[in-house]
Amino acid sequence: RKEVEQDPGPFNVPEGATVAFNCTYSNSASQSFFWYRQDCRKEPKLLMSVYSSGNEDGRFTAQLNRASQYISLLIRDSKLSDSATYLCVVNEATGGFKTIFGAGTRLFVKA
Amino acid sequence: IAGITQAPTSQILAAGRRMTLRCTQDMRHNAMYWYRQDLGLGLRLIHYSNTAGTTGKGEVPDGYSVSRANTDDFPLTLASAVPSQTSVYFCASSDSGGSGELFFGEGSRLTVL
């Protein structure tokens, strides 16, 4: 089993739709969680951190479920500019920190 | 502020040749990392450095070496390139020892023939 697993997609949605991605992680001792966005042929950039209480940033909502070991990202009112690959990132504290990236979920938003 | 600068952005290399990918940051971050990204596999850590003068092995270190002579620079060297090292390489830095946000360079696309 991969340490961090994501559905690779692609998710094809119309503008204005709501779309949700899940990501599961295997290490119950994982400590911090993030969603990164990566545009085609570009570097990953932090989209948002994921807090235990859940957090929202505009149209984006991230949730953490420690009991089931998954994190989610919800995008409301999708825009064409949301088309990208979304990477789930998990930090494990193992002496230092070990950062593990999921392979990413591709999203295409179409007009 | 430039952030992280990588060079070259793209390179085609004959197998067996030596290649150094350069990475420089101007954010005074202590921690720096080299990742490779291959289709369907996500980003995999090659080597890292928690502070100037120290380095460590990541998930896929074989065939690669790094040095960290100062805070700003973290070059990655392929001593004798092989086709399986064809990939996109990203350098990253963090100011919180790996527990927080990673800042990435724009990537170096390497093709080994």
Please outline what is shown here.
The complex is a heterodimer of chains A (111) and B (113). In chain A, 0% of the residues lie in helices and 60% in strands.
Key traits:
heterodimer; A: 111 residues; mainly beta; 5-stranded antiparallel beta sheet; B: 113 residues; 7-stranded mixed beta sheet; 4-stranded antiparallel beta sheet
Q: Could you explain the architecture of this structure?
A:
The complex is a heterodimer of chains A (111) and B (113). By secondary structure, chain A is mainly beta. Chain A is 0% helix and 60% strand. Chain A contains no helices and eleven strands. Chain A has strands at 4-6, 11-14, 19-25, 30-38, 45-50, 55-57, 60-65, 70-75, 84-94, 96-101, 105-110. In chain A, the strands form two sheets. In chain A, strands 2, 4, 5, 9, 10 and 11 form a six-stranded mixed sheet that branches. Chain A is globular and about 45 Å long. Chain B is 0% helix and 48% strand. Chain B contains no helices and eleven strands. In chain B, strands 2, 4, 5, 6, 9, 10 and 11 form a seven-stranded mixed sheet that branches. Chain B is globular and about 35 Å long. The termini of chain B are far apart. Chains A and B meet through strand 4, strand 5, strand 9 and strand 10 of A and strand 5 of B.
From N to C, what is the helix and strand string of chain A? EEEEEEEEEEE
Low-confidence stretches of chain B: none
Q: Which bin fits the share of residues in helices of chain B?
A: under 10%
Name the biggest interface: A-B, 25 and 20 residues
Q: Number of helical runs of chain A?
A: 0
The secondary-structure class of chain A comes to mainly beta
Structural class of chain B: mainly beta
Number of helices of chain B: 0
Topology:
The complex is a heterodimer of chains A (111) and B (113).
Chain A: E1 4-6, E2 11-14, E3 19-25, E4 30-38, E5 45-50, E6 55-57, E7 60-65, E8 70-75, E9 84-94, E10 96-101, E11 105-110
Chain B: E1 4-7, E2 10-13, E3 19-25, E4 31-38, E5 42-49, E6 56-57, E7 64-66, E8 76-78, E9 87-94, E10 103-104, E11 108-112
Parallel strand pairs in B: 2-11
Antiparallel strand pairs in B: 1-3, 3-8, 4-5, 4-9, 5-6, 7-8, 9-10, 9-11
